[in-house]
Write a structure and sequence with these properties.
Number of domains: 1
Radius of gyration: 11 Å
Structural class: alpha+beta
Helix content: 40-55%
Number of strands: 2
CATH class: Alpha Beta
Strand order of the largest sheet: 1-2
Largest sheet: 2 strands, parallel
CATH architecture: 3-Layer(aba) Sandwich
Number of helices: 2
Distance between the termini: 23 Å
CATH superfamily: 5'-nuclease
CATH topology: Rossmann fold
């Protein structure tokens, strides 16, 4: 799935909120979270980084 300007906006919002909360996560995880938020998807993962992303649906895997 190609990145769009809309995806970049989600990325920027996620990254800004994480920085404001003092909870930076790896860049690749921010992209995954942004795409999931943009499309209303759930991230199935055991990676605790995603727990810090506001409004992200996460399924423990």
């Amino acid at each position: 799935m190609p990145h769009s300007l809309d995806t970049a906006r989600f990325y920027g919002t996620v990254k800004k909120r994480l920085q404001e909360n003092g909870r930076p996560i790896p860049e690749n995880d921010i992209w995954i979270a942004a795409i999931a938020l943009q499309h209303g998807l759930t991230v199935a993962t055991g990676d605790p980084h995603f727990d810090h992303v506001e409004d992200l649906l996460v399924e423990a895997w």
